[in-house]
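REQUEST FORM: STRUCTURE PREDICTION
Request ID: SP-0412
Submitted by: Lab K.M.
Chain count: 1
Length (residues): 251
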Amino acid sequence: MPKVVSIHSYRGGTGKSNFTANLATTIAMQGNRVGIVDTDVPSPGIHNLFSLEPENTNKTLNHYLWGEIPIEEAAYDVSANVELKGDGKIFLVPSSFKADDIARILKEGYDVSLLHDGFRKLVKGLQLDYLFIDTHPGLSKETFLSIAISHILILILRPDKQDYQGTAVTVDVAKQLKVRKMLLAINKVLSKLNFDALQQKVEETYNLPVAGIFPLSEDVVQLASEGVFCIKNPDHVVSKEFRKVAQQIMA
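STATUS: Completed
RESULT:
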C-alpha cells in the first residue's frame, strides 16, 4: 500500500525542503517509485535541488489548482537530473516559481479539497510507492489537510527555543487530527552538543521518537541546493543518517 509522508516544520529555515529531497531520494534509491509535491506555494524551492529549470517547467501545481491541467501533467520525472541509478524513480510536482503565479494564488487562494484529490490521483496515475508532501511552514488549512491525510508526519526542528515551542503546538494539532504516526528529526545540530542527551531530552519533551539527528554540516551548505546531497556524497555521515530515517519510513 502506498504511503503518504508529510514533511513539516513550524518555522522556516529548518532545512525542510532539503530534508524532503534527500529522504525521498534515499527511498527511491531502494528501487521505489517516489513522488514529491511542493505545496509551499508562497515560497517554492525544492525544484532547485532537482535541477528543474524555469524554462522547462510550464506546468505546475498552481495550474492544477486553477483547473487548467490534470495533476499528472505537472509531474516531472527528475530521476536522471540527480543521476538516480537502478529501478527507482522520482517524480516532482513543483509549485510555480514565477512571481505573477505566486501573487495570483496568494490573492485568489484555491480549493484545498483539490489537493486531496490531486494526491490520490497522483499516487494512482504514477503507481507510486511513496508520496512526499513538502509543506509550507507554520499552520494553515492547507497544512492541516496534508497532516490529516498522511500515514507518517515528520516534524523537523532545530535545537532552538522558538522551534521547541512551535513544534509543541504542531504536535498538539497533529494529535487532534489523529495522525497515524509521527516522527521527529532534529536538524542543524552543532557538533559540540551531546547527540544522545539531545535525543533523550526531545523524546521526553514530546513523547515521540526522534528518527534522526543531523549535524550542521559545512558540506551540505557548500552544495548550496545545487543537487541532492545523498546522491553526491553517499558515504557522508549526513547521508548515513538519511538512510537510517528511510528504514523507519519503509518499515
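NOTES: The chain has one domain: 3-250.
Reviewed by: T.R.
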